[in-house]
Design brief:
The protein contains 18 helices and 20 strands. With about 500 residues, it is α/β, with parallel strands linked by helices. A six-stranded parallel sheet has the order 3-2-1-14-15-9, with helices on both faces. Strands 5-4-8-10 form a four-stranded antiparallel sheet. The protein has a three-stranded antiparallel sheet with strand order 11-13-12. Helix 11 crosses helix 12. It comes from Candidatus Yanofskybacteria bacterium RIFCSPHIGHO2_01_FULL_41_21.
């Protein structure tokens, strides 16, 4: 059996889950479900990033124990996984014991390869990003993403990671793996960054100043820097390094290397820093990094200061999970920035879901259930060559789109097929044929069922609940590869998407 491993980034638990991370989860879920549909054994990882100064200060500010604080937030993200109907198999927290041990072992291997050294450390630091900032990254001495925060100057003895050593190996690796980062323009961006030269960076903090982290092996005065610790989750979640005493199965040898989905703000960490860390620890590089854009709200950047950070929970409650999934996957191009507004969501709902998919399913199901009381016997030979060709083209298109991380293009293709089926109904008027030409009626209905079958199957990773409902109405059986020889007990479907009046 083929294995497939996909992971999201881990959100930092200093804020409520927002719609941008919901989109990342949903994108990863589509790819995970697609691979499961192909018959692969799938591991789908997500979780929470729980160390670092930002969390430590927030907890202190609220008079809470940091562990209690992160426990509270981890629950919210676990709940998000449930509410979004994700097929994830793993939920890792970087405060989990097995992760801490894995991170320490990873550190030891980098140290053994002479890629970690101690030096004095003086930098400009943005506590909003939890990142060092070079002068070129600052505008008027402020971080572009956090203009309200003061940039801090810091100096202390820290451990450093020899990032500079990996410039050549990274460039060689990129050259050997021409689709390592998708989309292309992000890949070019990271290549230019690495070509520009790499600076070693600090990977520890003094425990006396900031105790909320994993202890550096062999130095109880230091804790591991939050980014260095968090990135290791992608392998610790697979049980690396396998230790029977840990009680976690060894999935690393079967599932690594994996595919990673991340936002454009994570490009450098995932496709350069993490890759250099893997090289240093002597582990294989990731398989692929898929980079998505940001969601704007009503045309504006989502930000705390604008007060427009959109929470996915009430949207799911109001419209249903598949409506939010559909909107985010269809309206926002997978690798670009896109815009969210409730108005746009309602427009997509009424146009694409109520009038498009819902209407087609209802029309065809009603015709079948009214005219074939004993079930509709499906005969593949009755599918005409135009329909067959359209479906073949459709399948080719959706495979190419999904492999190239263009999930919105799959949905465009599905809705083209829906439009084709609608036109086919209007052109052939099956309700009239049912009375005067039963042979022709059977042919028309066979072609429609064939189209709806492929629509339903393709939609399953995108809108699992809706796809399941359509399968129930049409008596499609999930485990079967086709419909040949089936007698479908089609029933009248209820209204999948009742129109929303505006
Ligand atoms: Zn910042």
């Amino acid at each position: 059996m083929k294995t497939f491993y996909i992971t999201t980034t881990l959100p930092y638990v200093n804020a409520e889950p927002h719609i941008g991370f919901a989109m990342e989860l949903i994108q990863a879920d589509v790819i995970a479900r697609y691979h499961a549909q192909l018959g692969d054994e799938v591991v789908f990882n997500t979780g929470t990033d729980e160390h670092g100064v930002k969390i430590y200060s927030k907890a202190i500010e609220q008079g809470k124990d940091p562990q209690d604080y992160v426990d509270e937030y981890a629950e919210k993200f676990k709940n998000l996984v449930k509410v979004l109907n994700l097929s994830s198999t793993n939920f890792i927290r970087t405060t989990d014991d097995y992760h801490k041990k894995s991170a320490q072992e990873f550190w030891k291997r980098c140290l053994a390869n002479s890629d970690i050294y101690k030096a004095s450390y003086k930098i400009k630091y943005c506590t909003g990003c939890e990142l060092e900032k070079t002068d070129s990254e600052l505008a008027d001495g402020k971080c572009g993403l956090h203009p309200n925060l003061q940039i801090e100057e810091r100096e202390e003895e820290n451990y450093f990671f020899k990032f500079s050593k990996f410039q050549k190996s990274l460039l060689k690796f990129y050259e050997d793996n021409p689709t390592f980062v998708l989309p292309d323009f992000r890949f070019n961006e990271i290549k230019r960054f690495v070509e520009g030269g790499l600076n070693d960076f600090s990977i520890s903090r003094l425990k006396s100043k900031m105790p909320w982290g994993i202890e550096v092996p062999g130095d109880p005065e230091q804790v591991v820097y939050v980014w260095f610790d968090a990135l290791i989750n992608y392998v610790s979640t697979l049980g690396w390094p396998f230790d029977p005493a840990q009680g976690k199965p060894d999935m690393f040898s079967d599932f690594w290397p994996g595919t990673q989905v991340a936002g454009k703000d994570n490009l450098r960490q995932q496709s350069a820093i993490w890759q250099a860390m893997l090289m240093s620890a002597g582990l294989p590089n990731s398989k692929q990094i898929l980079i998505h854009g940001f969601i704007n709200i009503d045309g504006q950047k989502m930000s705390k200061s604008l007060g427009n950070v959109t929470n996915p929970f009430p949207l799911v409650e109001k419209y249903g999970v598949d409506v939010l999934r559909y909107f985010l996957l269809r309206e926002i191009p997978s690798t670009e920035d896109g815009d969210f507004s409730e108005e746009k969501l309602v427009a997509r709902y009424n146009g694409d879901l109520a009038n498009g998919l819902g209407n087609l399913v209802a029309r065809v199901a009603t015709l079948l259930s009214n005219n074939f009381n004993e079930g509709f016997e499906f005969d593949e030979k009755l599918v005409d060559s135009e329909t067959n060709q359209a479906i073949q083209d459709f399948i080719t298109k959706y495979k190419v789109s999904i492999e190239n991380f263009k999930l919105h293009e799959v949905l465009i293709a599905v809705w083209e097929l829906i439009a084709r089926a609608d036109k086919y109904v209007n052109d052939n008027k099956p309700w009239a044929l049912a009375k005067k030409d039963t042979e022709k009626f059977k042919i028309v209905m066979t072609n429609l069922v064939e189209m709806i079958y492929h629509i339903t199957k393709t939609l399953a990773p995108f809108m699992p609940e809706t796809s399941g409902k359509i399968s129930d109405v049409f008596d499609f059986k999930k485990e079967e590869a086709g419909l040949e020889g089936r007698r479908l007990k089609v029933r009248k479907g209820g209204v999948l998407f009742p129109r929303i009046e505006q």
